[in-house]
Amino acid sequence: MSTALTLSRSARLFVHAEPFALEHDAPLPELVLSYELHGPKGAPVVLVQGGISADPHVAPTAEDPSPGWWSAQVGPGRAIDTDRHRVLSLEFLGKRDAAVVSSGDQARATARLLDELGIEVLHAAVGASYGGMVALRFAALFPKRVERVVAISAADRALPFASGWRSLQRRILALGRDHGSRHEVVALARALGLLSYRSPDELNERFSGPASAGATDDRFAAPRAFAIESWLIGKGRTFAKRFDGDALARLSLAIDLHEVDVAAIRARTTFIAADPDLLVPASQIEPLAARCGGAARFVRLRSRYGHDAFLKEEAVLAPLLAELLAEGVR
Amino acid sequence: MSPSQWSRSVRDRAGTPPAVDGSTLEPIVTTPLLSPPSSNAAVSSGPSPTAHLLGLGRIGRQLLALAAETPVRWIAASDRSATVYAVDGLPTAPLVAFKSSGAPLARHALAAELPLSIALAVTDADVVVDATDSDFAPAARAEALSRTRALLKSGKQLVLAAKTPLLLDVEELQAFRHQLGVAAVFGGTGSAWLAELDEWPQGARSLACVPNATTTEVIAALERGGTLEDGLASARAAGLVEADPSQDLDGRDAALKLALAARLAFGRALAPESIERPLLTDLDPKLLQARRRRGATTRLVGRLAPDGTPSLRYEELARGDRLALPCARVGYAFTANDGTTRLHLGRGVGASGTARALQGDLATFAAKQEASR
Fold it and tell me: Which pTM was predicted?
């Protein structure tokens, strides 16, 4: 009978008071999406979506000057230039909705929001990780509604290795839910995820020093704390303060349910792969350019940051994004 | 329990002064009394906790119609005229059919014409659902408050669609808030935000709400070029409005909900009468249509500022505004010091939606009781 959501200062709200059909679950009683819009009215619209933990606050705004999850790339004068583009970012279904959701559901929800906003065609859909999967699915489902797609670290489906990793995270979350340690298991699941988002080379180099003295708070831990362990658990606990375990499990599952036929895409599409990437390797992404129904190119981004390269390789990614989005914009 | 047993039970239990409202009135028991246990498939039997329904109007009947999906055992129901009781569970479907015919419960073959305070003491249900019409006449209000106070003091859980009980003194209200189910009073949202506010370390700073769905329906009609009557017809068709819509049109309903939210959420003794109310009939349809053409809309918005100042106005809201809610939705937005807002959107409007909201509170209570065993 009610829905609750947390909104940043600059968040806007779309409520479609009709049942919303889902691919793998019963319809939602209504469609509720929070979103942000950056940039001048009337400018070409760029949809920007990130990984499952990203929220709609992609960059600072006048109302909410706090950093966004992609402040490095989005903003006035930046690669996704909010002086020249109108940037739309929205929350994923499944963040609040207790339902099994798919990338197709996300795409259709996005289309509903575009209808509400009077946006017929997107200048571009830029997505990284799960956001890239959604961008591809949107382009396949609504080929006339997007002119170009930039999909970073995203493919047409999840590989078994990656699904296996996420399956274990979900089992950890379920275990915590059933045994009353929800917060700690969210931290643990996130920490496990984090390990898959980075490359072994980066972590081996970064945490190569000796273990520091001092007891840890876990009975199974070594008497000396491993630096990588402290880092992972610390990051996980920070994440657990802002992210619900059930939402994490739902969105994790949404990644594994993702499937898209890229031949149905008509937009000019750029597939960007981080190399190496444990979850979505370049070898999986590269063939998609040849299969894509629209003009497509493949870009290999060599990075020690693995799947998280889109957040870390700011300087390399910026000119590429700027070039891709500049097409057709005066 | 046979009718004779029920009579004896009434007399036995009424022999000690009922704890309900301190009344020492002797019960007036007429026979035959209430329904015997039934094997009817529609009977809500088995699951505990036990529940007593006050008010068998549209909302009460809708709630009873959900008996099969509601995890309580309906052992009693009362209207203004009488009470029916069955310790093993009321036959809810026949009761709904009887009341839908328009007859008072007193004409029911199994009714007992007891003072409500006595009936409540005797039935002794775990949870009392108050779905009576909100009557603010001094005598009715005093009676409702007395009954509410007595039930809460006796440790009962109270699930409310009626608003009058929330006009208790603010201190009392705060003291008893954990015994209250208030989802339905606030369009399905009340219990959720009340529970959440307990967990906010610094509390909420301010409130903004769209508490009345009928005005939204009328505004939508006016924006489309329709008339006030068109809007009211839509609202009636959606089950949002009573035959007399004056409380919606003159802002009394919205002012009351704003005041009640202020009392519950912020502990502010805000009197509904002290809130200045705008009239829907003063709105200029041409202005509404012009706003709509430029992508904006209009809603009756209640606000409670950080200093406690209330306001109730028809506001222009841009597309995407968090309060620009569609028809058949209400919203309560609590803002914290850091500027983040927790918005509760409710679908619990109209008789059906309100009954669902009551059902939600009952399910929550049943789950808590189960967990505490």
Answer: 0.88
Q: How far is CA B324 from CA A243, B261, B315, B320, B330, in A?
A: 27, 20, 10, 7, 10
Please judge whether A6 and B357 are an interchain contact, meaning their C-beta atoms are less than 8 angstroms apart.
no
Q: Give the residues across from A173 on adjacent strands.
A: none
How close B286 gets to chain A, by Cα (Å)?
23
Helix residue ranges per DSSP H, B124-187: 138-153, 170-176
| Residue A310 CA, distance from chain mean position | 10
Respond yes or no on whether ipTM tops 0.95: no
CA distance A283 to A273: 9
Give the pLDDT confidence of A252-299 residue by residue, as tens digits.
999 999 999 999 999 999 999 999 999 999 999 999 999 999 999 999
Candidates B320, B343, B353; nearest CB to A1: B353
Using a CB-CB cut-off of 8 Å, the residues of chain B touching A117 are 319-320
Closest CA to A209 of A194, A231, A237, A238: A231
Q: How many helices (H) and strands (E) does chain A have?
A: 10, 11
Q: Which amino acid is at A139?
A: A
Mean pLDDT, range A235-258, rounded to an integer: 96
3-state secondary structure (DSSP) of residue B335: strand
- How far is B74 from B67, CA to CA, in rounded Å? 8
Which of B5, B79, B89 shows the shortest CA–CA distance to B50? Answer: B89
